[in-house]
Prior knowledge:
By secondary structure, the protein is mainly β. Helix content is 8%, strand content 37%. The longest helix is centred in the last third of the chain and has 15 residues, at 301-315. It starts with 6 loop residues before the first strand and ends in a 5-residue tail after the last helix.
Amino acid sequence: xxxxxxxxxxxxxxxxxxxxxxxxxxxxxxxxxxxxxxxxxxxxxxxxxxxxxxxxxxxxxxxxxxxxxxxxxxxxxxxxxxxxxxxxxxxxxxxxxxxxxxxxxxxxxxxxxxxxxxxxxxxxxxxxxxxxxxxxxxxxxxxxxxxxxxxxxxxxxxxxxxxxxxxxxxxxxxxxxxxxxxxxxxxxxxxxxxxxxxxxxxxxxxxxxxxxxxxxxxxxxxxxxxxxxxxxxxxxxxxxxxxxxxxxxxxxxxxxxxxxxxxxxxxxxxxxxxxxxxxxxxxxxxxxxxxxxxxxxxxxxxxxxxxxxxxxxxxxxxxxxxxxxxxxxxxxxxxxxxxxxxxxxxxxxxxxxxxxxxxxxxxxxxxxxxxxxxxxxxxxxxxxxxxxxxxxxxxxxxxxxxxxxxxxxxxxxxxxxxxxxxxxxxxxxxxxxxxxx
Length: 437
C-alpha cells in the first residue's frame, strides 16, 4: 500500500565512520555497520490534494524518503522508504519534465539484467505478473500497488552510495513508465526503496541484520538507524515475534513484517473481540503487517466495528460527530467529527492500544484524530478517527501504519525474526545522536 501528502526526508551522514567499510559488495555480508540519519518532515499545502465530491481519494499524507546517490559518477536520488515492498526502483524516463529521475545513460556502472539471468526468472511477490523479455532481451517487470499506482521497466544493477559506503551490484528496477495516484508525491521523489524481507529488498541486498527508526510528532525530526543498535538508553524494547509460515498461501505475504495481533484496548480495557478475528484464514487473509509505506492503521471489519463503536461511545459527550454518510476519509475512515476552527485543543480522548504477543503500541491524544486538509463545514474543521476499515479498500489484512508509530522506537531485528517497540521522545533521540540541537 503506497500512499501520500507530507514528506519525511532522510539526509544521510555517517555517524561513526571508523565502523563502516568504504566499499562493500552487495553479495558480501556487512560486518556491524551503523548508519544514523536525521529524519525531517515537509508538509504539502492542502491545495495539492485532488478533490472529489464529499470524498477524498485514497491517498496518504506522509511518506518516508531516503536521500542517497546512485551510479558512477553519483546522481542524487530520493526514494520512499517502504517496509511493505521488496524491489527498489527509480524513475529513469528522461521525458519526465521537472521531476527527479535517474539517468542510466550517465552511469558507467549501470548494467541492465537480461531475461535469461536467474534474478529475472525468480518471481518475487512484488511482481503482479512474472518478469518477461523486452525487445532487447532485457528483464522487464511490472509493479502494481493497492492504491492503483503502478511502475514498469527493466531490472538493472548499479552502485548505491550511502554515507560514504558503496554497495556495488545493487539490483533495482529502472522504470520508464507508470501511473501515480498522487502526483504531488511523485514530483518530489525519484523512486521507492523496498525494505521487506524479500531477497531483492534493499535491506537484504545490503546485508543489514537490523534497522530502526523513530518518527517524531513534535518538531518533525527523528532518526533512522541502519545496522546494529548498541545504545542502552533506548532500551528496554518489548519484542514481538514475526509470524512465518512454511507453505505459500494466496493472500499471505510471506516476506512482510507480519506480527500476531491479539487484541485491542480502549482506555486500558480489552475490547470483546473474538480471538479468531485476528487469526488469518486458510487462504492467508487476515495477517497483521507493520508497514512504513502506509500512514494510518487499517483493521478488518469485525475488529474495526467494535473499536469504532467503543471510541464513538466514549467521545459522544465531548465531540460533535460529523453526520455525513457520504463522507469517508481516504475511502476507509468513516468516523469523523466537527471541531470549531478557532478551537486550538482537543478534549481528552480515550487511548487505543494494539496488543501484540509480548508488546503493545498505545495511541493517545492528537494521534487519534487527523484534521482533514481543506475540509471545512461552516465554522468547523473535519477531524477523522485515524483507524480505518481495510475491507472498504478491498484489503484483507490488518496494516499498522507509521502515524501510530510516532514517538516509538521501532526496531526490525531480522536475525532474531522479531520487532521491538519502546516509547521514546523521537526529537530527543535525534538530539542524543547529535543530529539536532
